[in-house]
Amino acid sequence: MSLRPWREVAVPHEDVLNGTFQQAEFAADLAAVHAGQAPAEYRDPVLFFRRTYITEGMRLLLDSVLKRLAGRGGEPVIQLQTAFGGGKTHTLLAVYHLAKGEATVSDLSGVAAVLDGAGLRELPRARLVVIDGNRLPPDMPWRRGELMIKTLWGDLAWQLGGPAAYERIRAADQAGTSPGKEALIELLAAHAPCVILIDELVSYVRQFYGGGARSGGTYDSILSFVQALTEALKVVPTAVMLVSLPESKREAGGEGGAAALATLSYYFGRVQALWKPVATEEAFEIVRRRLFTDIVDRAAAEAVCRAFADYYIDNGTDFPHETQDSRYYERLRRAYPIHPEVFDRLYTDWSALDNFQRTRGVLKLMAKAIHRLWKDGNNDLLIMPGSLPLYDSDTRNEAIYYLPQGWDPVVERDIDGERAETTDIDSHDTRLGSVQACRRAARAIFLGSAPSTANQLARGLEGERVVLGCAQPGQQTGVYKDALRRLTDRLHYLNHANGRYWFDTRPNLRREMEERRGRFNDREHVVPCLRDRLRSDIGPGVFDAVHVFVDSADIADDADLRLVVLPPDAGFSRTVQAPASERAAAILQSRGEQPRIRQNRLVFLAADYDIVSRLKDQVRMLLAWESIVADVKVLNLDQHQLHEAQRGVESASAALKRLIRETYRWLLVPTQQATPGRGVSTVEWEHYQLNPGAAGFAQEIERVLRENELVITGDWAPVHLRNLLRDWFWKDGISAVSALDVWQKTCCYLYLPRLRNQNVFRAAIEKGANSADFFGLAYGMEPAAQGGGSEYVGFSFNKPASPALDNSLLLIEPAAAARYAEELARRTKTPEPGDGRGGQGGGGPEPGPWPGPKSGPGPGTGPLGPQPTVMRRFYGSVEIDPLRALPAFADVANEVVVHFTKELGVRVRIRVDIEAETDASGGFDESLQRTVRENCRVLRFGQAEFESK
Questions:
Q1: How far is CA 705 from CA 99, 547, 673, 756, 939, in A?
Q2: Could you count the other beta carbons within 10 Å of the beta carbon of residue 731?
Q3: Where in the chain is the domain with CATH 3.40.50?
Q4: CA-based nearest residue to 900, from 470, 616, 597
Q5: According to the CATH classification, is domain 56-277 in 2.30.30?
Q6: What is the pLDDT of residue 901?
Q7: Overall pTM surpassing 0.85 (yes/no)
Q8: CB 3.0-4.6 Å disulfide test: which of 448, 679, 703, 709 passes with 461?
Q9: Which residues lie closer than 8 Å to 70 by C-beta, 6 or more apart?
Q10: pLDDT tens per residue, range 765-786
Q11: Per-residue b/e over 227-244, b at no fewer than 16 CB within 10 Å?
C-alpha cells in the first residue's frame, strides 16, 4: 500500500495546530499550580498525567515517595539536580498531584503501574508544603491568613498546620534564627504523612550571601535550618522532602549562588543517584504526548516506520551503522511522527548549550516547526531534520535564540529562505529541486552543527548522517550526495573537512576568496601565472624550445624546432572567427621588425576559444587562495581555516591543471601546397585536437605530430629524400646540390617536410649512401688535374658512409653518380700490354680529363630555380640623405644586409664612407673637430682626418 504522510496519521493538539500556544505554558510552575493559577494541563491532575510520560527516573522517584508516605521505607530527602530543562519541576508536579490525591488512580494515566511497583493498593494522602524560592521576599514578611511570615521555617510550619503549627516556632521565625532539629521533628511528626516540595531554593539562599541580617534571617541561619530539617526528616518515617537544585554554577547565578549551591548540594547529595535524567528514547513519548493527539491510524504509522527501516538496510553503506540494527525500527515507532534523528540532535547537541532547556526547549522549537509544517501542507512521511522550516521566521528565531550572535545571516543566505543559495541551486537543477535536496541537506547540517564550538575535536555531521536526516523511502541517496558537493562549492558559511559538514558564523573563506578573486587582472596576474604553469606542464619533448606567450622578436629564426604557445586571448574555434590564426600568422611572417626566414620550424599551440574565460576564472581562484594562505597572520586564521585555505590551494591547483589540458588542446600547423612547375599556394592552417586525458602534455603533442606526419621525428626513409631532391633540386640540368642547402630549405619552406632536427636528415643520407637507388655523395668539386672541367672530391656511391653535414657535402643524382663512378673506373683501369694503349706496346692517345658534372651553385639552387652562372660576390653602394641617416641605415640593414647574414658561409663586410665639406671661411671650428675626432676614436674608425682642401 502507499505510504501516508505524517499529517494524515498524527494530528497535533489544538494549541499547536492553531499556533495559539504560549511559550510560558511550556514552563511548569509549581507555585502557580499550588495557587490555582496555572494552565489546566498543569493544574488538572487528569490532564497532567494524560500528557505526561512517566520516565524510568520519574517511576523510581515516585516509587520511593509513595513507599515513604506509606511508612514502607523510601528516602527521606531527594535532590533533583539535572541539566537545565531536565524535567525537575515537572517531576515535582507529579509528586504534588499524587500526594494531593484529588483524582482516582484509574483516571491518572500510568499511575496504576507505579502503585503496583510500590506494592500499594491506593495512593496515601499527605499534607503538602510548596516553597518556591523565586516567590519569597528576603527583606519583608509575607501574609499567610492573619499572620505575617518572615522565614522559610515559618512558612513551612504554617503550610503544615496553619496558625497552631506556626505557634511552635513563632519565636524562631520572628528572630530569624533556625528553630533547631528537635522542634522540627515535633512539627513534622504532628502533621505526618507530609510532602515538602522546595523549588528554586538556591535563588532564595544566594540573596543572603555576603553577611548581614535580613527579615528572612541570615545566610548561616538558613543553612542551619536546612541541615536541621534534613536530620529531622530522617527521624519521621512518613515525611519526605524533594528539593530541586540547578546543575551548574551558571544556573546558580553569581558568586553567592555558586556558594549556596555547593553547600546545599552537600546537605542534599546523599540520594542524588536516585534521580535519572530523561533518556532520548523517553523524550520521544514526552514530546509526542505534549504536541500530538493519539495516532489515528497505527497501521499506517507502522508501515511508514517499516519502510524507513527497510530503506536503511537496503542502502546500508549510505547510512550510519546504527540504522542497520533491527532495534532502529523500534526507535522509529516510538518517535513517530518525528524522526529519531531530530531527537538525537536536539538532546545530544543542542542540550549542550547553556540556555537550552532539554525538554522545554525541544517542545518550544518543535511546536513552532510543526505548526508551520502543518500550515504549509508538508507531506513528508516523517518530520525529519531536513523538514525543519527555517524559512519561517518564528521557527528560525526560536532556533537561533539559543545560539551565539551572527546566525541569522547564515540561515538567510546559506540555508533556507527565498534568498538562500540552497533555494537558488534547487531552482536551477530539476533533479535536486524535485526533492529540495539542497535545502533539506542544509537544514540537516544546521540542526547537527549549529551548537558546535570551535574547540571541538570533531565538528559537524558525517555525510551519511546528513543523508539520514534528509532521504525518504523511494528516493535516491545519490541525489543528496550530489547536493552536498554542490553546497560545498557554493555556500559561504558551510565548512567541510574529514568527511564532516558544519555551519559556522564565520565565512568558510569562500567569501574572502570570492572577494579577492576580483583583484587579479589578466595582464599582471592571470597571464604570468598561466605562463608559469604551461612552461612547467608542457616540457620540451620533441621540440628544441617552447615559447609561452612571448613576442615574435623573442622567437629565434634558426633551425631549431619550436613550439609557440599563444596567449589565452588568441583562442581558436572551429565554429566562430577566432584570433588564433591571425596571431600565429604574424609570428610566422616576421621576427620583430625582420622577416622570418625559417618558417617551417614553428608549430603553434592555442587555447579553446570557448573555455578561455573558465580558465582565467580558475587562475584567479588559485591566486586568491594562495593570497589567503600568504596572509594567514593578517587574517588571523585559526588552524581549521588555515587547513581550509591550504585545501583550497590544492583543489584549485589540481582543477587548473585539468582545465589547462582541456583549454590548450589545439595544435595549429602552417602548411603550403606545392607542385613542381605549378607554383605554391598561400599559407593554410591545419588544426589538430589533443586528448586532454592523455598521460603527458608533451607526449600527447608528439603523438599528434608523429601520427599526422607533421613532424618527422624518427627514421626518414632515403627514398623520401631522393623524391624531394628529384622534385625540387635535381632540375634544369643540375645533378648535384649542397646537402646543407637542402636541410636549410626544409627549415624555410612550408611545403617541404618538417624534420625534427638535422640528425634526422643526416641519418637519411647515411642510410641512402649504401644503395645505388638514391644518391651519390661527394665533399665538393675542384678543377681536374689534367685538362679542363672539374671532378668530385671524396666521391662515394653505393657504399657505406658516415657523412658530416657541412658546406662541402654534395648529394648527387643517382644516374649522374653512376656515370661518374663508371668513368672513374675506366680512368683508373690499368692498360694491358699490346692493347695499343699506353705502355711500351701502345701508340694510342691517353684519356682526357672528366669534363665534370653540372652542379648547382649551392645555396642558390633548389626550388627557387638554378642559376646559369655561379655568383659568389656582391657589391653595392648607396647614397644616404644625412638628414635621415638613422632610419636610412636601418632600412639598408633590414632589407639587404640581413639576407646575407642569415646564410651560413657568407662573409659580409660593411664600410661607411663619410665626406663633409664646409663653405665657411674659417672652416670647421676647433670644438667640432675635437668632438668628431674623439667619437671616431671611440667608434674605432680606421681613418678619420680633417683636410684643408
A1: 97, 17, 18, 10, 50
A2: 20
A3: 56-277
A4: 597
A5: no
A6: 67
A7: no
A8: 448
A9: 118, 120, 124, 193, 238
A10: 999 999 999 999 998 888 776 6
A11: bbbbbbbeebbbbbbbbb
